[in-house]
Amino acid sequence: MEDFTIHLTSDLTSSERRLSPDWTLKYFKHRVEYITGIPPESQKIWIYETNDSNEREQIDSLLNEETTLLEDLHISPFTRIHIESTSNDPDMIQLQKELLNPEDQDEEGLFKLEEKRYDEMAHTVKKWKLEKKLGRYDPAFTGKIQELLEENEVKAKTIRVGDRCKLHNSSFERLGTVRYVGKIPEINNENSWVGVELDEPYGKNDGSIKGVKYFTCKLNYGSFVKPIVVETGDFPQEKLDFNSDEEEDEL
């Protein structure tokens, strides 16, 4: 069977990737780590039939990763594969929170964990993490952050103002229109951001952040997110038909 394209998502990333059905599960998880930043031992893998499907199936964690091939998992072209992190590492959790909620950050910006928070920790805990090189003190942690930053900048170059988009940074996907792409000094001076006018009031602002207006929309229809959680494409605005005579299950 030839290589094919799938949708690979995580709480931090969303992209199309090509894979080979001949890859072992172990090799696939190793490749996924460099895309999502989630180490193989912390990966919980969910398979969706399509990118828009809500039905999913978890890959059995007891499978032999050395011998199980991707073709054995019945993954087909344009299947969505979601990588969930099972890590309880507080630094990685904080990293995700900072990525998914940029508007709650201060001027220190994304990927910079507050030093004061660590200084207030019990001295024995901080010393232990330093000695064991855990969390932010692990050299690999810095490398993963840099990889995310680089992927973010590459993705930003593919997004244009006016693009319809879908956001993958919450428990449910949100649709909207791109209204701004670029730097936002009010968050930080290093990373690119995407300002989105959402179709529904699931945002946090009106297109401004910390008093600076980047685009105009209704209150709670605006959101600023990292490019790596933005998927652009043909996503028509959904309209509720209250006059339909058809009976449907309540959502």
UniProtKB/TrEMBL annotation:
Q: Which GO terms describe its cellular component?
A: cytoplasm; microtubule plus-end; nucleus
Question: Which SUPFAM superfamilies does this one have?
Answer: Cap-Gly domain, Ubiquitin-like
| InterPro entries for the chain | CAP-Gly_dom_sf (IPR036859), CAP-Gly_domain (IPR000938), Ubiquitin-like_dom (IPR000626), Ubiquitin-like_domsf (IPR029071)
The lineage, from the top, is: Eukaryota, Fungi, Dikarya, Ascomycota, Saccharomycotina
Tell me the ranges covered by the CAP-Gly domain, including all copies.
193-226
Cell compartments where the protein resides:
Cytoplasm
Q: Which GO terms describe its molecular function?
A: microtubule plus-end binding
The family line of this record is: Belongs to the TBCB family.
Would the keyword Cytoplasm be found if you checked this record's keyword annotation? yes
Q: Which UniProt keywords apply?
A: Chaperone, Cytoplasm
Task: Give the UniProt record's GO annotations in the biological process aspect.
Answer: cytoplasmic microtubule organization
Q: Which domain of life is it from?
A: Eukaryota
Query: This protein is called what?
Result: CAP-Gly domain-containing protein
Name a Pfam family for this protein.
Ubiquitin_2
Q: Which residues form the signal peptide?
A: none
